[in-house]
Every structure is written in structure tokens, then in C-alpha cells.
Amino acid sequence: MRKDRLPLRRRRFALSLLLACAAIISLAANAVPHPQQPNAKEELLALPGEIGHSGGRLVVSLRSEPKTLNPLTAADTPSREVIGTMQADLVHINRATQLTEPSLAKSWKISADGLQYTLTLRQGLRFSDGHPLDADDVLFTFRVYLDESVHATQRDQLIVGGKPITVRKLDAQTLVFQFARPDGVEERLFDGLAILPRHLLEKPYQEGKLGQLWTTSTPPNEWAGLGPFRLKEYVAGQKLVLERNPYYWKTDANGNRLPYLDELDFLFVPSADAQVLRFQSSETDIITRLGAENFSVLSRQQRNYTMADAGPSLEYNFLFFNLNDLGDKSSADLARKQKWFRDVKFRQAVSAAIDRDAIVRLVYQGRGAALWGPVTPGNRRWVNAAIPHTPHSLDRARILLKEAGFSFSTGPNGESTLVDSEGKPVEFTILTSSSNSDRTKMATLIQDDLKQLGMHAQVVPLEFRSLIDRVTQTKEYDACLLGLASFDADPTADLNVWLSSGGTHLWNPSQSHPATPWEAEIDRLMEQQLVTPGYDQRKKLYDRVQEILAENQPMIFLASPDILLGAKNSIANFRPAVLEPYVLWNVEQLYFRSGAENASR
Amino acid sequence: MKQRHKLTKWLVVLVALHGIVAAAGFFAPYDPTEQDRERPYLPPMHVHLMDAQGHLHLRPFFYPFRLREGSFDQYEEDTAQIVPIKFFERGTRYHLLGFIPSRLHLIGTASTRIYLLGSDAYGRDQLSRILYGGQVSLLAGLLGAGVTLLLGALIGMAAGYYGGWRDELLMRIAELFLALPWLYLLFALRAFLPLAVSPLEAFLLVVVVIGMVGWARPARLVRGVVLSVKERDFVRAARGFGASDFYLLRRHILPETASVLLTQAAILVPQFVLAEMTLSFLGLGVPEPMSSWGNLLATLQQYNVLVSYWWMYLPALAIVPFFLGYLSLATALQERTSPYKMEEKTSWNLS
After folding, report:
1. What is the DSSP annotation of A262-328?
2. Are B303 and A294 inside 8 Å of each other by CB?
3. CB spacing of A362 vs B40 below 8 angstroms
4. The pTM is what?
5. ipTM score of complex
């Protein structure tokens, strides 16, 4: 159901995987011998939390097969989710607290001018194949990320102020990152940037084959990572099996090496309903990305599992109108409609007429939050609580429409029709994605709300790709209902949506100059928060962005669903979060309470 | 004599069923698109004659449903309040048969809305939606069958009567039509149409598509009949007297195909109702908020609806009497018009 979110900033097309086999053969010939003796004491990271015991196999379902295991080319959600359990980053965002914490780097220091970051690596760490990690691996990783010919999805993030970040090594454990200008994101930048094994990848990199490497069918001995699990087996079309990484660098409070689980299996289950059935029949241990309806079905029949509502997600659904400047290409019909859409009072009236509480109740069965701005209540640190929650009011909508020059004419059957200043009835279509029943439902509710205002809206469910094509390429549409999910709580995650030059600035994407003064102001504020250090200052800037958006309603924000999930009762340390990956973020700490139940499977 | 009786019986049943659907505005208590957002997925209400205290009421009544605290779709009867059901009540405005304005409804209530067959995800009355949906589905079936039979009869007669290369060509085209993957062509066709298709356009599209798809089979049947009839003595005699092709077809051959066409019609109508349901189920039919049996059933694609709300299956039951009626009519027609069958039957009776 949720597969059709727009990929945001990291959107890049995966390279062809055709040459993979050739690359693998050449790699096998150059396998590096594993050093046996550790040459320094390991600096492990001890995690607080419930002490568990080792063993067991956790089975999780994925909506589709991961396209790749290569962090450089991974753009789809399943790939990112799998890679997240197999790789590690220098600094990590704790999904529960939404704050950064040390990861492969045990500490970091930011210079006073905000241009220099000094990171210190943990000593004695090893990749999952036993090869030691040192600063050269980090240097190599960032060289690869920044190499234009590799087309890494991470490259955009590492260009700060128009210049790539430079990295240099002070000693075997210490690295200095040099920025061209201060970056407001600060050390959050390093989250999700997997550190790659130089000993395996340097040769393919020099041969220019890096993009085709590490497909799902890579033999396990040609693969290495720093995450809690490592590759064991891949069965095409069925599952991906990961096993415990014996060299993992985290321990529990008692000093036992994590992860607790012996094995982590990802089953490929193509539909949401099939995932529910698999979970009900105990074939999988955890279910995430649940819709409210399936959640209530599972809650009703609860037996050996617990359902959890982690609160509003970062997904925001919204209705937006076509505000593109189409010039001569525009049809007369659309140009006439755009005259209404451009009027802020028209948009405010539509917003006032929409019954958001009904959307939350009927679409999400009450498991969601009504929205008046783009930042959901789930994003505790960044939401602007001062944005007015304008109540649903048809009267206010009518007043706004009258002020904007619209009038009401009464038809023969007593139904009233809204007409514009030229006497034309207000009619438009709302596109939605046909594969997302939640949004189709929202559109049907909005259609009925707008009927009360005398507007005739028609809902057109379209296949997701052709919908995106219409919105971003041909721009032949009236209005559209979509949702976006930020992958991080930080405002920079949605930069592409709010900047007028951004490709996901949906109502009028990729502008060369901001079309309106308020879009120009948002541009300015967003650019400014990028370079402003310190949360308080940035929050003030981003609050203003949220205010401008709420006032001008380029997107009429509707509702945000809760993160709904379920897990077997036997799984301990189950602490779902609203950031992706909702459950597996602490996969190294998950364990089975009783060995008996798991063994019986 | 008995056959004739059977035929009239089924005809009466079918006319009555169609009458109910045609006068949906009168039989349906509410407008099918009217939402009641406080009552999503309300189960069918129970009509009582006896109240909770054991008193008998002359007028049937029901207890309104109340949402259970903190729940989204769990209701309980509120026995404190009795809502009597009124007959011939004035309610929402509608047009009987599409043109007679009226406000009269068979049943209605003064206060709380009545849901005899429950409500859907938006709190719309399922009974009203089934009745109005039937209008779309049945009309599509009838019109579709009409288009098909017209095309089939024309093409079949042309092929059978003229024979030769024309026969070859038409029959090969018919085979092509039988072999085409229609569903995929439909999806392609839908992609070429303008974005916003009004309900009327969508309906016409469904009818035309349904009609275009099915002509091959009746055409082959008609061709077979024409092939044998055109060699019969009375046709040869008429031709000998100098009758034109058109006269022969109209006067002598067409009447002979009537029984085949009638039986085909009785078989095709329910088939085409089903085709409309398939198209709407796949999202190619009439758009929301209009209802048709197909898009009513489309909600069953969701697992949670399937397991939680049994009354969403009811549109599937609605077609059963229609199918039964049409197929029995087809059987009765076939028995009446086929002398061969009659003989067989009587001889069996004698033995």
C-alpha cells in the first residue's frame, strides 16, 4: 500500500546489473586472506537495554525483492531496509530519540567555524569477513561516493555549498572532513553512509565495475560489511537469508557481543494482504507498514502477537493544484482553471471545506493525525505547534469564495453550483494513485466535501507511474492527491520539496526563478537553515517555512497515518520507532524470550 | 401448453425484478451517494415487532445503533429508543425512471437513518447502492446484448447468405475477435481516453466495449442457420420468382433466425451483466461515487473487508435471481422453439 511513496532526495536510477557475473568472477580470483590475529584491543560499543540471550531466527517480510545489496545504487525501500541491517555508518541517528549517537566513530568534534569535522574511529574493528577496518577504508568510501563516474546515490548529500566534502587522514583512527561552508545538518550527514571494505572493492572500482557489484546473487564470501548481519544465502523470488556477523562491534550492557539472533530472514511477500496472512499463520515474526484496516483485523484476532501503534509517522498526505506556468502549451480549459487555483483564497476555501477529522476517522480508523502543515506530530523536534488548526467550516469556505469573486447559482433540483466570475461552473479532476486505497478514499471524502460547496470534483485513480509522469513531466492535470514520507526528521530531508528549484516541488517543480514572493521566501529560509548551525536557530527558520506553507496552501495538508506494526509476543526489546526502519533499527538487540517456541518452528 | 406457461412465469419474474431496479429511487430509502460519516461499516439493522420489554408493536421498528466507545466499526443496539419504520415516506428528491421527479420512498424514518443492508466505508446505504447499482449493471447488460446481437445477426447473415470469400473473411475476423486478449486491449484503450471521463461517458464506453466483444459467437450461430435455410425449398422458390437478396433475407431468412437470436439474448444478458461487473471490478467501469454491482464488489478486493464485513458480499447475491430468471427463460425459449427437443421430450414421456 505504501510502496508508491515518492523517493525523495536520494532518487537515482540503479545501474545495469548485466555485468555482475563477470565482476564476481574477477573478484573471486583476488580474495584477500583473512588476518587471524587482532593487532589492537577492540573498542566495542556497549548498548543499554534488556539483556537477552543468543539464538533464534527472525523472519520478516518485504513487499518486494531488494534490487541490490550495493549501498551505492540502492534506491528502493526494500534494498535500503536490508542494507541497513548489513552495513554501518560513522555517526548514527537513534531512531527512538531522533538524536545522533556514536557509531563507527566513537567521537567527533566540529570546529568553531563549522567547516571542519574531526572523527575518531573505534579501534580494532573488523568487517564481517574478519578484515580490519581503518581510516583508509573511510577514505576509500568517500572517494567512491564522491566519484561522479560511480553515480552513487549518496553523492548529492556530500556536495555542500556547491563543493564536495574533502576527507583526509590524520592517523590510522582519525579523519578530518573539510566543508566549503557550514552545514546545518551537522553530523547527521553521516547517518546511513555505509563504510565500504576497501580490500574487496578497490579493484572493481579501478576497473569501473563498482556499480554492477553486490547484487542479491553475490556469493557470501565476496561480500563484507560492518552491520550486525552478513549475507548467507539468497533464494531468487523467495527469500534473503542473513546470518550473525561474528565481528560485530556492539555489545549489551553485560559485554555480550551482539546481535543476539543467529539468523535474519527476509521473505518476499508481494502484497499487504498476503503479508497479513503470513503473519497470522506465524510464518513471519514481525509485520510493519500496516494499514489501519489490516491493523484492526489483526488486533481483533490477536493470539500470540502484540500489535503496536507507534504514533503519527512522518508521512504527510496532501492535495495540490496545478500551479505550473505552462505558457502557450496550456489548454484554454486548464488556463481558466488555473486562474482559480492561483487564487490563495480559493485554496484556503478548499482547505476549510475539507473535513480532516472524517479523513482520520474513516480512512485511518482514528489511527492517524489531521494535518495543517507538512511536519507531522510524529516529528517532535521540528513540528511548529503554533500553526493554527483551522476547523472544518463550510461557512468560512463560502465567505472566502465570495471574496475571491465566486458566486453560487441554484440548479433546478435545488442543488447549488459554484460559478466563477465569468459564470463558468467550478469543475476539476483530482488524480490519485489507484494502488493506494487510503488516498483513493481520501479523494472520495474530499469530493463529497467539495460537493457541499457546489464544486464538482471528479476522482481519477491512475497507475502510480503515469500519475507521476503527468504531475512532473506533461503537467496535464487539475489537482492531485499524493503523500510524501520524509526519510529523516531533519528539514533538509525535504529540501527538494520546498525549494522552488526542486524536482519534488510538486505543484510547480523545477522552476528557474521562484514564481511567487512566498516561494522566494521559502527558498531563502531553506537555504539559510542549511548553513545555520544550532537547532534553535534552524527551528525558528523552519517554523517560518511551515507558517508560510500553511498560509498559502500550495499543498492542502490532510492527514498522517500512524506507524502500525505487530510482533510476536516472544520477541523482546521490540521498540518500534516512527523513523525508518520502524522495527529493525535495533535489530541487533532483538531476541526471543523463550527458546522453545522458536525451536518448534 | 406447459412450456408456454413456464415461459410466461419466468417473463413475469424478470419484468418484476427489472421493475424494482428501474424504480430504484422509490424502493431505495436514500440517495446512493449520500455519506453518513458517523456510521461507517454499520451492520444491517434488525427490524423488530417485539420490543425489549416484550411488548408487541403493530408497526415494525428498529433500534438505532450506537458506536461502541473507542471503536471505529463496532456498534451496539440502543434499546432505549424505538424508531418506527414508516411506509410511503417523503424523503430525498429523485427522478423516477430518470424523468418523473418525486420524493416518495417505500420506506423511511423520521429521525435516525435506517440501514437494512448495512453501510459501506463512507456510511452510504448499501441497499440504495445495490438498487441504483443494478440500474447501471442491468442497462449495460441489456444494451450490450442488443449491440452484440445486432452486429452478430448482420455479420452472420451476410457471411451465411453470400458465402464464398466474404464468408471466409468474416469468419476469420470472428475467430480473431474470439482470440483477442480483451482485457489488455481495454486497459490500453482506457489509457488513450481523456483523463476525466464523466459517468455517462464511462457507462457508454462500458456498453460499447461489451457489445463489441461478443458478436463473434452469435454471428457464427446465425451463419449456421442461414446456411441451411437458404437452401430450403421455399427460399429457392422465392428466388426463382425473382425475389431480391434483401427481400429474401428480410422475409424468409431473418424470421428463421429469430429463435436462435432470442435464446442467445436470454443467455447474453446475464453474461454481459457479469462482464460489466468484471470491468468495474478492475476499475474500468463507472467512477465513484456512482455505484454499479461491479464497483460495489470491488471493495472486496481488500482483505480486511473480506473478513470483517459480511454484508459487503450482498451485491453478489443480488445478481442471483436475475441469472436464474434469464437462464430459465433461455431454457424455456429453447424448449418451446426447438421441435426436435419437443419430440424427444414427448417420446421420453411416453416410454
Report:
1. SEEEEEE--SHHHHHHHHHTTS-SEE-S--HHHHHHHHHT-SSEEEEEEEE-SEEEEEEE-----GG
2. yes
3. yes
4. 0.82
5. 0.81
